[in-house]
């Protein structure tokens, strides 16, 4: 084996390890395994993900670029704090991205795109009706199952190649960042029927192919989540 081929193999191996850590660490941050503002200690992360220092540092810098990790010269790497200012900025950016994405999707989407949205809603409905009566943050298994189908439903609006890859990547990244905020809403039980009603209306507006109405519905959906989360942050601030 030549030196060049050895280097290529090592580079490929390192990239694979880095990708693995990026995926796992991103999921742990968004799901709350690592709490907001928590310092990300190298030794702890190396033990948790069974990787060396080089792929771990690469993963941390990639996640810093995505906004999932904060890096400062004094404190090193940490999980970003939750704040009203960050929530406002995130919501505004999501509105811009989702408006561009849904306009592309409606203009380009065909029968397969529509069927994908309907199927995703059906899976959301099955999850809520069959497995969840009323739920809260105390039932982590139910929450994880719900979040999986909920994410798939929203992703279906932009799936099937009807939206540019860059827009899809932006939507996924911002959705993951917003999940840390949205997860706080699981602390309070809420009605599956209400959840279904909200998402059914959203689906129907998108499938009507009225782009302006779809944009308004998506933005209103983002604002409602923003308002609920802001109330939680305000209560937490008052309690502190």
Work out the radius of gyration. Answer: 20 Å
* Order of neighbouring strands in the sheet with most strands: 1-2
**Shape, please?**
globular
Average pLDDT over all residues: 87
Distance between the termini: 61 Å
Q: Can you put this structure into words, describing what you see?
A:
The chain has helices spanning 3-31, 42-49, 53-66, 84-108, 111-131, 140-156, 165-182, 192-207, 211-239; strands at 70-72, 76-78. A two-stranded antiparallel sheet has the order 1-2. The chain is mostly helical. The longest helix has 29 residues, at 3-31.
Key features of this structure:
single chain; 240 residues; mainly alpha; 9 helices; 2% strand; disordered N terminus
Helices and strands in order:
Layout: H1 3-31, H2 42-49, H3 53-66, E1 70-72, E2 76-78, H4 84-108, H5 111-131, H6 140-156, H7 165-182, H8 192-207, H9 211-239
Antiparallel strand pairs: 1-2
Produce a short descriptive summary.
By secondary structure, this protein is an all-alpha fold.
């Amino acid at each position: 084996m030549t030196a060049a081929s050895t280097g290529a193999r090592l580079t490929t191996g390192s990239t694979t390890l880095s990708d693995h850590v990026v995926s796992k660490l991103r999921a742990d941050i968004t799901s709350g395994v690592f709490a907001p503002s928590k310092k990300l200690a190298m030794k702890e992360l190396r033990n948790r993900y069974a990787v060396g220092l080089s792929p771990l540092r690469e993963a941390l810098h990639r996640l810093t670029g995505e906004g999932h990790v904060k890096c400062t010269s004094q404190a090193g790497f940490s999980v970003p704090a939750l704040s009203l200012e960050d929530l406002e900025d995130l919501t505004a950016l999501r509105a811009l991205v989702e408006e561009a994405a849904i306009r592309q999707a409606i203009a380009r989407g065909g029968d397969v795109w529509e069927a994908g949205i309907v199927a995703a809603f059906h899976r959301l409905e099955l999850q809520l009706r069959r497995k969840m009566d009323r739920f809260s943050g105390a039932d982590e298994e139910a929450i994880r199952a719900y979040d999986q189908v909920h994410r798939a439903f929203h992703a279906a609006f932009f799936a099937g190649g009807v939206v540019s890859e860059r827009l899809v990547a932006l939507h996924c990244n911002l959705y993951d960042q917003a999940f840390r905020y949205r997860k706080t809403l699981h602390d309070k039980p809420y009605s599956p029927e209400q959840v279904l009603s909200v998402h059914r209306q959203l689906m129907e507006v998108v499938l009507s192919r009225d782009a302006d109405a779809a944009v308004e519905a998506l933005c209103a959906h983002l604002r409602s989540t923003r308002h609920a989360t802001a109330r939680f942050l305000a209560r937490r601030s008052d309690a502190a």
